[in-house]
Design goal:
Elements (H helix, E strand, L loop, with lengths): L8 E4 L7 E6 L10 H9 L3 E5 L16 H18 L4 E7 L1 H12 L6 E5 L11 H13 L4 E2 L12 H9 L7 E2 H15 L1 H4 L8 E6 L7 H8 L8 E6 L12 H13 L16 H10 L3 H8 L8 H9 L3
Parallel strand pairs: 2-3, 2-4, 4-5, 5-8, 8-9
Antiparallel strand pairs: 1-3, 6-7
């Protein structure tokens, strides 16, 4: 990076001179290996995929420390510029998962990204606007008074995926962060605030094609938060949404990840073609509306979830540690 900071990058090579190049941005406390299943599938179809360990994650200096939303967004723009220079004739696509999707959204809300398409997998849009006031207060107070306190997610009864073998592998992987600093949770919440505001402040009315993917079983980014976000996003052909009935948070790595990966590949090859899974939400949003209405939590449910301080984004990275060992 321009400041001398080094980011670890993985690559899955497709064609010698690929027509499409993808840049993968991982989720909170994860790292570039998250894109292995998708990268392998895309490479088999001739698409080259790069995945980066974002600053403060994976095999980078000071892993576990939050380096700031602005820095993550600046790194993304640098990576885009470098890939444009290295593959000048290729279509460039950013694929963001969870926090990685939030980085792309927050950056594009400030000014357009120099990309040809964007894929958002389970975007991290759980902003403070969709948290109860006492949850917001608890997070902010803890971040101010005990910023270096590390939390492990013990007692959180949610899981990011139904793929237990994959979760066991992650629990043994030293590059996956399993004890999270409170100030990092506070920082990623700030990032999610920015990402959730994207529909209202985006600066590019003629945005590149956008594919959004979300699973009905996702308990890491609550349905209430996702539904509030997607209600403000027009599904107009340029922007498309797939809602997977059996999908969890780590969609390409779930047990039903193959159809998700096939949808991404199909869309990259032809953004106008029907998605093979058949899980796309139509312009009338009827299935999405039913899902959002059914998922609207009662006040009692919100209070129960709020007891798991500071919030369930932590569980995306640590819940598998306890559950996979059962």
């Amino acid at each position: 990076m321009p400041d001398g900071y080094r980011l670890a990058i993985r690559r899955w090579d497709g064609a010698t001179d690929p027509d499409v190049v993808a840049l993968g941005l991982h989720g909170f406390n994860d790292y570039s290996r998250a894109f292995a299943p998708l990268g392998e599938d895309l490479a088999a179809a001739g698409i080259t995929t790069y995945a980066v360990d974002q600053r403060g994650f994976g095999d980078t200096r000071q892993a576990g420390r939050w380096h700031g939303s602005a820095r993550l967004q600046a790194d993304l723009r640098t990576l885009i510029r470098l890939l444009r220079a290295h593959h000048p004739q290729a279509r460039l696509v950013v694929i963001g998962e969870s926090m990685g999707a939030a980085v792309a959204l927050a950056a594009s809300a400030q000014s357009p990204l120099d990309i040809d398409a964007l894929v958002l997998i389970a975007p991290a849009v759980w902003s403070r606007a969709t948290m109860p006031w006492y949850q917001r207060l608890a997070l902010d107070v803890t971040a101010q008074t005990l910023p270096a306190l590390k939390l492990t997610g013990s007692g959180i009864s949610i899981t990011p995926s139904d793929n237990k073998p994959m979760l066991r592998t992650m629990s043994r992987d030293p590059l996956v962060i399993k004890a999270t600093r409170v100030d990092a949770l506070w920082g990623v919440t700030n990032l999610m605030d920015q990402a959730a505001a994207w529909p209202d402040i985006r600066h590019n009315p003629e945005q590149p094609p956008l594919l959004i993917l979300y699973g009905e079983r996702d308990s890491i980014i609550p349905p209430r938060a996702f539904c509030r976000f997607i209600a403000r996003v027009p599904l107009d052909g340029q922007t498309r949404l797939a809602l997977y009935a059996d999908g969890w948070h780590m969609l390409p790595r779930d047990l039903q990840g193959a159809p998700v990966r096939q949808d991404i590949l199909s869309w990259l090859q032809d953004p106008n073609a029907p998605l093979p899974s058949g899980e796309e939400i139509g312009p009338d949003r009827a299935r999405l509306q039913r899902f959002c209405q059914a998922a609207s939590p009662s006040l009692a449910v919100l209070k129960h979830k709020a007891r798991h301080l500071p919030h369930a984004m932590l569980a995306a990275s640590v819940a598998f540690t306890a559950r996979a060992r059962r």
